[in-house]
């Protein structure tokens, strides 16, 4: 079961171009699926702990929750790309993959003036077309080293998984959606305390992708 929360080494070897861990040797917090009704609360929690995050937003939710989207930017967090419709891209053909990814890039570019450099496929699922569409748009794929399990809405699960697997260079995934909203604050507080106990720092998300080094 933990296979899903913590991608195994062989996957990282098969896809070396994908970002799986934070090179900065700090915890990188990423928050998927927003903006949503819960975004403002999430921003308050992050401020309380002085943490910056990368928000992987969907184009559709950016259009729906425009004020929340602007608040994320204003709070100094980073917006990156989680596709337009939040579909399982692994099941989609070349045309659908390119349409969804092109469209989400366009939304972000028009509203922020910045072109996204990172893409995270919904559910972490992708195919060859997805990889090509990501590359064509000048982005790199970022997956994760640890899903917190907040999307289950079960804090006991979050506690078990993070206690077992939180490491110094973890790319951590939390969610800005309805199901996770029930446990988000409690989960973040637990993770912050755990990091402090283990003497891990949080990244301030200066985006350094492996591409920058080439
Ligand atoms: Zn998602």
Description of the molecule:
The protein is of the alpha/beta class. It has a single domain (17-209), classed as Alpha-Beta Barrel (TIM Barrel), CATH 3.20.20.370. It has helices spanning 2-5, 9-14, 39-49, 59-64, 66-74, 94-112, 128-136, 155-165, 178-181, 184-197, 210-213, and strands at 28-32, 54-57, 78-81, 118-119, 140-141, 146-147, 171-175. The strands form 2 sheets. Strands 3-2-1-7-6 form a 5-stranded parallel beta sheet. A two-stranded parallel ribbon has the order 4-5. 41% of the residues are buried. Mean pLDDT is 93; it is low at 208-214. Bound molecules: zinc ion (ZN). Zinc ion (ZN) binds at residues 32-33, 82, 86, 122.
Number of helices: 11
Task: Give the CATH architecture.
Answer: Alpha-Beta Barrel
Strand content: 5-15%
Shape: globular
Task: Estimate percent helicity.
Answer: 40-55%
Q: What is the CATH third-level topology name? A: TIM Barrel
Ligand names: zinc ion
Q: Mean of residue pLDDT?
A: 93
């Amino acid at each position: 079961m933990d296979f899903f929360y913590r991608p195994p080494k062989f996957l990282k070897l098969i896809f070396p171009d994908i970002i799986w861990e934070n090179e900065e040797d700090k915890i990188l917090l990423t928050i998927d699926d927003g903006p949503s009704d819960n975004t403002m609360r999430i921003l308050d929690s992050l401020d309380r702990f002085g943490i910056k995050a990368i928000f992987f937003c969907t184009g559709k939710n950016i259009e729906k929750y425009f004020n929340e989207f602007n608040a994320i930017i204003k709070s100094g967090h980073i917006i990156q790309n989680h596709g337009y419709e939040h579909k399982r891209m692994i099941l989609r053909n070349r045309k659908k993959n390119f349409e969804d990814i092109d469209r989400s890039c366009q939304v972000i570019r028009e509203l922020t003036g910045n072109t996204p450099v990172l893409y995270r496929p919904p559910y972490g699922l992708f195919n060859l077309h997805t990889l090509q569409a990501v590359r064509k748009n000048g982005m790199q794929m970022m997956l994760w080293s640890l899903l917190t399990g907040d999307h289950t809405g079960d804090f006991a699960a979050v506690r078990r998984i993070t206690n077992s697997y939180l490491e110094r260079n973890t790319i951590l995934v939390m969610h800005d959606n309805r199901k996770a909203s029930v446990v988000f604050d409690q989960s973040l507080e637990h993770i912050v305390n755990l990091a402090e106990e283990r003497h891990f720092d949080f990244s301030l998300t200066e985006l350094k992708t492996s591409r920058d080094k080439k």
